[in-house]
Fold this protein.
Amino acid sequence: MTFDTLAQDLAMENGVGNATNREFLATQHAADIAQFLTEHDADIDWRVLDLLELQRQAEVLGYLDREVQVELAKSAPRARLAAIVTEMDSDDRADLFNALSEEEQEALLPALAQAEREDIRRLAGYKEGTAGAIMTSDYAVLTPDITARQALDKLRLEAPDKETIYRAYVIDPERKLIGSVRLQDLILVAPATRIEKVMERNTLAVSVDEDQESVAQKIARYDRLALPVVDADGRIVGIVTHDDAIDVITQEATEDFHKSGTVRGLGESVRDAGIFILYRARVAWLVLLVFGNIFSGAGIAYFEDTIASHLALLFFLPLLIASGGNAGAQAATLMVRAIATGDVRTADWGKMLGRETLVAGLLGLTMALAIYGIGVWRGGPEIAVVVSVSMIIIVLVGSLIGMTLPFILTRFRMDPATASGPLVTSIADAVGVLIYFAIATAWLL
Amino acid sequence: MTFDTLAQDLAMENGVGNATNREFLATQHAADIAQFLTEHDADIDWRVLDLLELQRQAEVLGYLDREVQVELAKSAPRARLAAIVTEMDSDDRADLFNALSEEEQEALLPALAQAEREDIRRLAGYKEGTAGAIMTSDYAVLTPDITARQALDKLRLEAPDKETIYRAYVIDPERKLIGSVRLQDLILVAPATRIEKVMERNTLAVSVDEDQESVAQKIARYDRLALPVVDADGRIVGIVTHDDAIDVITQEATEDFHKSGTVRGLGESVRDAGIFILYRARVAWLVLLVFGNIFSGAGIAYFEDTIASHLALLFFLPLLIASGGNAGAQAATLMVRAIATGDVRTADWGKMLGRETLVAGLLGLTMALAIYGIGVWRGGPEIAVVVSVSMIIIVLVGSLIGMTLPFILTRFRMDPATASGPLVTSIADAVGVLIYFAIATAWLL
């Protein structure tokens, strides 16, 4: 039995609730079932979900992309949806709720129990991109006065409803976070030991409005399974878990990568995005860059006399302006990623500038040597000198523009990832045209 | 007390082993102490490490970047280094060992106990980039015949030496992996229950030579804390943990990002890399791209007559060729990242081609409209038509090149990330020059 034979079964008969299919699905990971649902239509999806227990249905739903979730939610009777939603992890549930239209939200809420309703309202209220928006409220808490044995009994009871019980959080009567304790320490110490004796005080925590990228970086940096989230008064309101941290890191890397190619936020998979969504993600930057390149054109037009008297200069035009753009793109790429991973801070600009000048100078020199011979061959010694000198200056200036732009964007609270790729290339191109023909005019006329 | 005052203390007096510093360090996370060491010299670093217990020294060392580790290892007496290395996690230890020179390795090995020596030799033997190279051998195993109580006792005893005991792996007499069991299930069931009754059979596992990126993706996809690694005979040889998965994902994203800007593998932080290392990472591609752009130059030279009789064409040259390059870079960026995250497979090329043709056609049309007016103004109606028609074709062709290149590279087992950015831009540029002047020549002459 495989997913392929399941698909055949579903296509052939109407009621697929046979024992073989049920057994097969019971052995599969929820993530794989979710993948199968993504590749099929909503009516098939519901027939597959029917073969699972309610708790598993909720688990599978949690692994689906947002759009597929919404698609399924729309086609389900309200009571059925409410039953599954009740079983979902609180963070997945709040995300799904946020993705529904206002009417769908209003239809769903009354079908839920009071506790779930309040939990959804509370979690859905946090701003997107913050710790509050990705945290779950399914965490375990303990009080400092109970014993390890009592704590274990409590965790044992609560385990099925919690995302993780490997670390429990210790709170005072006002729910203020005062420490945390690992499950492994609870089973290690004598059963009569009080929690306040084993707990880790000053436990790491993040604020509810902290940026999700910064939270994910902390989980990665400190190798934590989860980090507690506290409000302005130090009260625990949720936890962010390691699997959400991986999702955030992957998502932010994808966004940065897209921005580096001047593609705007897509919000969904390239494979599933519609034509118009893809068009919209690309058109604004392309048109903007067209007008950016008009400066290069104007530069060329300005030097028309120089060009008309030395048409051989044109041969080297693409090569010279592309070299400035390429060197700039390299410099920008290095800085953008270093800033994104926290490797380099804005204060480091001075240090980086000195090194970039040296590296770019060496690169320009190498490329000038590489191009000199071709210059002599295509245009004679005079043109060769113009081309070589231009190359050094263009690579140097392009690189400095490329490394500086990410710092400037960060300073003005814009995303530096935009600066690598086409944007920096266009700017360096225009500057390259001016440098080349200015040097040529001065030398040859 | 802060790290700043600690630095002042270290700069002032010689013996800094005072109680305040010791206490301060005891409250700090190992990752933060490692950060402090990275920012100071080896002699200061050793004085700080002296204030920590041996186990903590090893933990801090594990958080350091490879180069800093090697720096410290070189400046330590052999016996001292051996003592710390013995306490390190087995994966960190093998990585450090691999980074040492052959002589340093030979000097270190005799100072270690037999068990550590064999463990290092075994782990160091796996190829870089595979599951074997990032796995740790500090995992907990159980046999199926013992009870939950016996299992808990065993885990309790072993906990300090294991990276995680939250999941233990169940093996048969030949060490073949037959299942796994969560700590939380062990404390949940009746103490007399046998492991074979609670264990999860068909537990997820990866092969020792599986690519590290694929292992990390599985940990992310299935939300696991760790995945067991098995050899060709199904015997467990290690585990890869979630924190290593995050490191791999971050590292691979950085590499892809660098390649998209035609920067070769740097192997270390941009902040700390030397001038020559940065030069070497950039020069090869820059020079290669120069020669790539010679095709554009040759294209222009070939159409010199057309240009000489219509110099106004030059104004639109940078704009038209950049548009093809930019549209190509966008298309490539979307495909490269979608392939890297497993969103799109090579088999999807056909489907993607159809959609890209539609999207690129729309984009080309939009840009042709945007540029038509400027064409009339700068060159008259005839040139405006040439420029607009060229724009549509150039954007379409550039986009198709950009989306196809990543698939071709993947097919030939090369890294598609190279295809976004400057490489695709250069190719699209050259094609753009030919299209523009071919249309201009046909229309105007």
Summary: The CA atoms of residues 228 and 239 of chain B lie 4 Å apart.
